[in-house]
Amino acid sequence: MIEVKIPKDIQEYKSKLIAGMSTRQIIAIAGALAVGVPLGVAGYGRISGDTLSWLVILSVAPFAGWGWFTFKDMKFEVFMKSFLSMNFLPQRRVYEDTDINLFCSLHEEIAENTIVNQHIENGDYEDE
């Protein structure tokens, strides 16, 4: 008998095109090959192998991220947009006025306790 996994949420289902990969992943592989192979061929013999391999990896990494990376149900481009806006763009900060009376009452209470402690130390305070 054939068994098929049924996801709990229907939106979790990802259609597979070839070799268990989605259309998005296949397009990412094609883009990575379109950038990585010409870069590798053009740099072969002109740049050291170590440097060339890092250049290829760094140029292909965005394609891999676009094809496979998800974070809390956000695709790569949505995540990068929110990451960059949160970390590198100026943030709008909301000013919230605090209750000044709270601070005044705390200051008065501390002052009263200080005065009482001074009277106790001087012997001016008597228990009734």
Offer a few descriptive terms.
single chain, mainly alpha, 4 helices
Describe it:
It is built from four helices and two strands, in the order ααββαα. It has 128 residues and is mostly helical. A hairpin with a 2-residue loop joins β1 and β2. α1 packs antiparallel against α2. The longest helix has 23 residues. The model has no long low-confidence stretch (mean pLDDT 85).
Q: Which helices and strands, and how do they pair?
A:
Blueprint (H helix, E strand, L loop, with lengths): L22 H21 L5 H20 L1 E2 L2 E2 H13 L11 H23 L6
The biggest beta sheet reads: 2 strands, antiparallel
Percent range for β-strand residues: under 5%
Biggest sheet, spatial arrangement of strands? 1-2
The portion of residues assigned to helices is: 55-70%
Total DSSP E strands: 2
Sketch the topology as an H/E string, one letter per element.
HHEEHH
Mean pLDDT: 85
C-alpha-based Rg, rounded: 32 Å
Q: How would the global form be characterised?
A: elongated
Taking pLDDT < 50 over at least 5 consecutive residues as the criterion, the unreliable ranges are: none
Q: What distance lies between the first and last C-alpha atoms, to the nearest angstrom?
A: 92 Å
Number of helices: 4
Sheet/helix structural class: mainly alpha
